[in-house]
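Lecture notes, unit on binding sites. The following record was shown on slide 14. It pairs a sequence with zinc ion.
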Amino acid sequence: MLLTKLLAKAVAWLGQLFCLLTLDMECALFSHRAPQPWPRREVPYVLDTSFAPDYQRRILRAMDAIERRTCVRFRPLGAQTTFLEVRSNQEWECSSNVGIKEVGKSIMTVDTRGCAGHRILLHELLHTIGLHHMHQRNDRNDHVRVCRWSIKLYAACNFVKLFSETYGLPYDLSSIMHYGNQTFAVDKNAYTVLPLRPWQGDMGPKDDLSPGDVAWVNRVYGCRCHYLGDDLPGAMPYEEWLSATTVKHHHLAPVDASECR
Ligand SMILES: [Zn+2]
């Protein structure tokens, strides 16, 4: 038993070390993992019964913030067999599957002591509906410098370059899916992610989605009647991106324009 535990720890440690050493490479082991969006733009969910009513309201408030600006809908679980389970843990962990798992439960797990804030719940729910971290885009080195040796080893895999599909949207330092400059730093004087150009804004998670985040969700889900970010500097207009993209399997066919009121 002890040996099995030690082996599992050693494998995890080696995996994290591998992540740390390959952060900047376009590593075949990590790339091309395009998350799958939820079909019909609906996320059936069930909440852990141990959550206090106040905490349940916090989760619903974060879901509502996403629903108000996108066409993604969270629905209490009915007869569906593929759904989101929001689970409680006691290990100070806040994490989520990215996108739908094809069969069975997608898990978002939260420790109510450490994951109480609106921004953390929003961030995790965006993972659930299929968004990776902004700073894991393959083109991130054109915009930020990741300081490898300042990252806590256990978090190294959260800094690996991971995906190339940008949905025609510009790199967004203000994204709620972007880490702050000291997230997972080894100490309070260390920086893990630094913008390459002077940046006036507030980098990293905040209490709301950025316009780029809203457009990102709406492009993944084909929310043609919602904000698609066509006016963002450097964005490719949605319809142009849609007709140019050759990869169809990780975004949904758009809502018919005739449905827009
Ligand atoms: Zn995250």
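Take-home: The pocket of zinc ion is lined by residues 123, 127, 133 (CB under 6 Å).
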